[in-house]
Protein: Macrolide ABC transporter ATP-binding protein
Amino acid sequence: MIRLTGIERVFRVGGEEVHALRGVSLDIAQGEYLSIMGPSGSGKSTLLNVLGLLDRPNAGRYELNGRDVTGLADDELARVRREAIGFVFQFFHLVPRLTAEQNIELPMVLAGIEPAERRRRLDRLLAEYGLEDRAGHRPDQLSGGQCQRVAIARALSMGPTLILADEPTGNLDRHTGQEVMAVLERVHHEGGTVAVVTHDPEIGARAQRRIRLVDGEVVEDKRSGGG
Amino acid sequence: MIRLTGIERVFRVGGEEVHALRGVSLDIAQGEYLSIMGPSGSGKSTLLNVLGLLDRPNAGRYELNGRDVTGLADDELARVRREAIGFVFQFFHLVPRLTAEQNIELPMVLAGIEPAERRRRLDRLLAEYGLEDRAGHRPDQLSGGQCQRVAIARALSMGPTLILADEPTGNLDRHTGQEVMAVLERVHHEGGTVAVVTHDPEIGARAQRRIRLVDGEVVEDKRSGGG
Ligand SMILES: Nc1ncnc2c1ncn2[C@@H]1O[C@H](COP(=O)(O)OP(=O)(O)OP(=O)(O)O)[C@@H](O)[C@H]1O
Ligand SMILES: Nc1ncnc2c1ncn2[C@@H]1O[C@H](COP(=O)(O)OP(=O)(O)OP(=O)(O)O)[C@@H](O)[C@H]1O
Ligand SMILES: [Mg+2]
Ligand SMILES: [Mg+2]
Structure:
């Protein structure tokens, strides 16, 4: 489903270069559930952004479902992203002027989903994430963990088959974090492909396949039995 | 050093009320090291904001070093905050236009610290937090965990005796998180008062005193031996 070959991502700051990803090659099959761990600054968010078509590599190739997406124009990338990928950002990127409910609903509105169907999905997502009595709050009227749950619900509202989640439990207590992972894992049980960046070894260990990044390189790629 | 008596904090959203803190009473002595844990949405950030003079209670009293600070005017609150309290925000609140180094330096510039002394403290903080080769990066050119470390370094740059840290290791791998806690604990060893909000039980267990909030109330307040 996903094939990365020799991905390089170099940032330039002032006169210097930061090699955030160094020759990363990775195959991810449809239906896999993997975690990505590694030290702060090792390139995890950068890798997820490349996978999510939010950032372009400086070198290397990205094939998504057999199609080379490396060279696509911005509007085409945006279309593929909207239709196929649910992305949970490390710092949420919620729309400040919209309520929790409106934020979750936004991808569905953009996709032209009917109001009655949007309402059905919203009710289910708000209940699943314990956000029912915060639906009308804007992000600045929510706790950190409530914002995180809104970001996750938004990523799932279009029922995408590829979920990319950057630290989805970072601001959640253990119990709420387990609930969130249960929902993401249900997407996996239903056939979806799920990649989770996490600093929490307990969360990382839940995945079938565990990738470790250090200084922009994949240094470990283990599968647990019964993959 | 800190006495909270019957603190109430009520938010109003549309027609409804959210009781974020309900009758919280708490004494914190100079030199204590405590952790505050509890479910997402239980009032931890709100409590820390009240302690940090960033938010006013709707009822109840806050005495800081014997002085009633509940009714102070905004500019006086700001002065007390600047001089006595180092605050690490759950989502950092770094200045986007400034570099990592300039962000860390900002409180010192505002306090009129001499350039040579600022440079000395900056060099020490950048080294302590592994940020030396990211000093010239702006927040959007830093990883999540690097931003978090900049926020912590900034809070410590004025050598405050009261440190309030909201989820200081939330975006850090275990190793970097331990390093950060070691620096905060050094402040404690040197006589400072440290309160850490955390979702990580391992981090919470390091404190001498552990407070648990549920639904705006203190439900647990335990001290470990040798406090
Ligand atoms: N826009 C940018 N410009 C310059 N350097 C950048 C930029 N974005 C990221 N970096 C650098 O690239 C490296 C990788 O960043 P990335 O955000 O992928 O790390 P990460 O593994 O997600 O870290 P964390 O666990 O702290 O979130 C970091 O050293 C960071 O400073
Ligand atoms: N400005 C606000 N307006 C309305 N409600 C608010 C506001 N700020 C916080 N709340 C609500 O008050 C409650 C406590 O929020 P707080 O941010 O203190 O929780 P928290 O314990 O820090 O949660 P987390 O662990 O998710 O960060 C939450 O239910 C939240 O929705
Ligand atoms: Mg990251
Ligand atoms: Mg909080």
User: Anything to note?
Assistant: The beta strands of chain A are 2-13, 16-28, 33-37, 59-64, 67-68, 85-88, 162-166, 193-197, 209-214, 217-223. The pocket of adenosine-5'-triphosphate (ligand 2) is lined by residues A 134, 137, 140-146, 171; B 11, 13, 18, 20, 38, 40-46, 90 (CB under 6 Å). The longest helix of chain A spans residues 174-189. The interface with chain B takes residues 11, 13-14, 37-41, 45, 90-91, 134, 136-137, 141, 143-146, 148-149, 167, 170-177, 199, 201 of chain A (CB under 8 Å).
